[in-house]
Amino acid sequence: MIGEIHSGTYQEISTDNFEPFINKWFYTQYRHEVSVTTFESRYFIISNHLVPYFGKMLIAKITTCDIDRFYSGKLDEGYNPKTIRVMHSMLSRGFGQAMKWGLIRNNPILNTSPPKMHSKGNCYMVEKASKNFFKPYKGRR
Questions:
Q1: CA angle (104, 30, 59) in 5-degree steps
Q2: In the structure, what pLDDT confidence band is assigned to residue 130 with cuts at 50, 70 and 90?
Q3: Residue ranges of domains in the chain, CATH in brackets
């Protein structure tokens, strides 16, 4: 930090909570980049998922671990990995803008582990293989 002060690259981190930051980004940047229907569906994601979880946290104090816990909780609640990836996308874009605005020093989203997408073809093959695996044991106890 002392080196940053001497070199003139030191910057104060934000003391803003996540909720006002994400709303500011969403309404000043994001809304101009997407269609009205996308904007509305993403507003639902922010207001019903991201803000309830991260809203009161300081933007500069949110960690990769916090985000991974959020993903894990959503999986435990039964959300589809595709939906969680949309949440990840919103967080990624928001934290990317926070970096550009100088509100955070490190982007916590960069090392997160959002759930992997599974193609339907793979699920079908696993289901078919498991049915065939148990076929010889059908009716036995």
A1: 25
A2: low
A3: 13-135 (1.10.150.130)
Which residues are paired to 17 by β-bridges? 58
Taking the C-alpha atoms of residue 90 and residue 23, their distance in angstroms, rounded to an integer, is 12
Continuous segment of H or E residues that includes residue 22: helix 18-28
CA-CA distances (angstroms) from residue 90 to 5, 23, 50?
Answer: 33, 12, 9
Between residues 35 and 16, which one has the greater pLDDT?
35
Q: Give whole-number Cα distances, 105 to 4, 55, 61, 94, 114, in Å.
A: 12, 19, 10, 14, 22
The residue with tokens 């990995």 is 81
Distance between CA atoms of residues 56 and 19, nearest Å: 7
3-state SS class at 108: helix
By the 8 A CB rule, do 91 and 45 touch?
Answer: no
Average pLDDT over all residues of the chain: 85
Give the CB-side neighbour count of residue 15, counting CA atoms within 13 A: 1
Q: Which two tokens stand for residue 48?
A: 């019903």
Between CA 25 and CA 135 the distance in angstroms is 55
